[in-house]
Amino acid sequence: MKSVQTKRLLKAFVFFALLILAGCSTIPDTNNSLFGNYDQATMLNNIGNNILMGHINEVVSKFEEADEAINAFTANPNDSTLIKAQSAFNTMVESWAFVSPFNFGPMNDNLILVNIDTWPISATKIENAISAQSNAATVGADTKGLKTLEYLLFDKNGNTAVLSKYTEASSDNRKAFLNSVAQNLSLQITDLQNHWNDGHLNSFVTSKGNDVSSSVSQLVNAVALTMDQIKNVKVGNPIGLGVKVNDNQPHPDKIEYTLTEESLGVMKANIQAMKDAFNGGSAQGFDDLLDYVKAKKNGLDLSDVINDQFDLVITKINAINPPYSNAVSAQTNDVREVFDSLKTLIVYFKVDVANNLGVTITFSDTDGD
To answer: Which pLDDT score, from 0 to 100, does residue 269 have?
Structure first.
């Protein structure tokens, strides 16, 4: 990306400027710590405000728009209102993909990720909830959230099949439950926004250092864990290389979004979101902190090695032709390359980043990487 290339040029300029101004001496470490005089507050403020909060604010608006579109559909179910509701769903899913990788703080503490994005769902439980006139707020995580919304808005047999479920005489319960799922999603994401605005953003910016409660540690762990889950669940299981599905056979029913074409786009957005957080956009990010501590990999700046690997993962995802459900059989080798490229990127974070920043990885993966 242009911003990353620009930062690489700036790094070279700053390095030579420091050599001239400091007489080739290293930056003083008056704090006697690994990060020395590095301005963590500026880095964390940039990541917290411009990257994390920026995406959270965006997704709140998309969830609200989807809630409104779904209410319009249930009030008047027809081709036009259904297509608008489905389009709003696709947009909210893509927006959420830039927030979901960062499952720490209030998102984890308040089970917001679980309530929004648990899968697989239970179709039986959903139908039972509809029959019982239940509300999404009172059912389990596998009976609400984005995947339940997908189940209620889409059908493999097309929109005629969807509309038939909302225009028959007994459709009131289904309409009410669909509305409650959309409303619950909007409430969940607004709750996340409120928690960040009401103190967690300040806590994120001020939690310096590298112990397990620091923002550096929480973010490194969240990114590494998300990558591990993408590799094993979103990529590995569909081609039989995951933890729960490990028979080296294609399983198209194991892709993330089984009724829409969102799986590949969401996966790519997940990776891009983590890359954005790593680089801090065009401002201070983890890449700059790694450069400060002179982190290297095979004689190269570790920050550059990781950025190149992020780009490789995205390139490998772009090589897969939708629908993903077909690709896991027709392009198994290409999907396997996504798996392998993610495996390398995970090692960079769990070993190289963690070691150079003195961060402890607090989760254990399930496949021995």
So the answer is: 98
Q: Is 308 part of any domain?
A: yes
Euclidean distance between CA atoms 241 and 246, whole angstroms: 5
Distance from chain centroid for Cα 47:
15
239: CATH = 1.20.1420.20
Does residue 21 surpass a pLDDT of 50? Answer: no
Tokens of 97: 């993909």
The count of other CB atoms within 10 Å of the CB of residue 227 is: 25
Distance CA 35, CA 29 (A): 8
Q: Of 208, 236, 253, which marks where a domain is finished?
A: 208
CA distances from 131 to 85, 144, 365 (A): 23, 15, 39
Report the number of secondary-structure helices (H) and strands (E) in the chain.
18, 2
* Contact call for residues 89 and 266 (beta carbons, < 8 A): no
Question: Side chain identity at 109, as an amino acid letter?
Answer: D
- pLDDT number for residue 25: 32
**Whole-structure pTM value:** 0.90
CA 283, 56, 138: angle at the middle one, nearest 5? Answer: 160
Q: Which residues contact 198 (CB under 8 A, 6 or more apart)?
A: none
Instruction: Determine the structural domain holding residue 149 and report its residue range.
Output: 59-208
151 and 249 share one domain: no
Residue 110 included in any domain: yes
User: Are 193 and 57 contacting, i.e. CB atoms less than 8 angstroms apart?
Assistant: yes
Q: Which helix (H) or strand (E) holds 147?
A: helix 146-153
User: How far, in Å, CA of 154 to CA of 160, rounded?
Assistant: 10
CA atoms within 13 A on the CB side of 25: 6
